[in-house]
Amino acid sequence: MSATVIDGNQLSRQLRGDIALRASRLAAAGHQPGLAVIVVGDNPASKVYVRNKVKACADAGFHSLHEAYPDDFAEAALLDRIAALNADPAVHGILVQLPLPVHIDANRVIEAIAPAKDVDGFHIANAGALMVGGAAAAAGFKPCTPYGCMKLLESVGCDPRGKHAVVIGRSNIVGKPMAMLLLQAHATVTICHSATPDLAAHTRLADIVVVAVGRRNTLTAEMVKPGAVVLDVGMNRDDDGKLCGDVDFAGVSPVASAMTPVPGGVGPMTITMLLMNTLEAAERVARRSSANVESIRS
Ligand code: NAP
User: Is this model's pTM higher than 0.90 or not?
Assistant: First the structure.
């Protein structure tokens, strides 16, 4: 038997339909969701990501701003642009496409974004909120890729409660927040990384495996417990230049119960959750402004 293929494209279409509906209601009330995307430099992959994000915004009925700056754009000028967008009421979310050129301190840039507009969920205030959990986490923004992974698990009825989840990778963008989200969902979580001596010893015990490494065939059939759910975050190129993930899809498929393909799994969900976070940011602004109107009236 082959694993059920968890279809990120289909789930994205469904969620984006809901997002577009909520966005149209907000727009009718004078709060069209707005996302500003900034890209610095000439990275071809960044250009593709940004183009996809801007198109997804248009399709969902969002207002979007796309600002592109040359490779030698000064950090101070970038911080000035972020300050202006922080103050712009038409902008509910700000995303600075990473990686940035080496002369720019990415952490300083991320920390300059107002936490209420940090729809990537990378600001230390949002990362801290996720760590604290509970009401703090609900008020913050979750990083889009792990947030999308949680939705993919939900879509196949995989409740992490009581399960053993292994996350391979500990980046601030994927691995660490993924582990926090699984922990909040009551999984027992193991985080593996490049210094983990025997990766397979951990993955063989896992009911859920999330692989976010950036290396082909990091997870192969003999490393997977029969019936496990496998999410593949990796994005790599195979020898023919075709997009592939970190998981040996053909090998693992007869062992796992459900797994994401690459492409068409986690990737589309990342942009969908970016839209979701931006929508939520706009809805919070709308709720605050209608509460203000109510308090002025009463
Ligand atoms: P990253 O910052 O390079 O982190 C990679 C992680 O993998 C690190 O924690 C590293 O450990 C660990 N690692 C490296 N070699 C390993 C090994 N042999 N065994 C176990 N762990 C190992 O990358 P990232 O930003 O998290 O992204 C990971 C992958 O996901 C990339 O392919 C990226 O393109 C992809 N990605 C996809 C999406 C999407 O939307 N689909 C979004 C984001 C990222 P150390 O910490 O010890 O170095």
Answer: yes
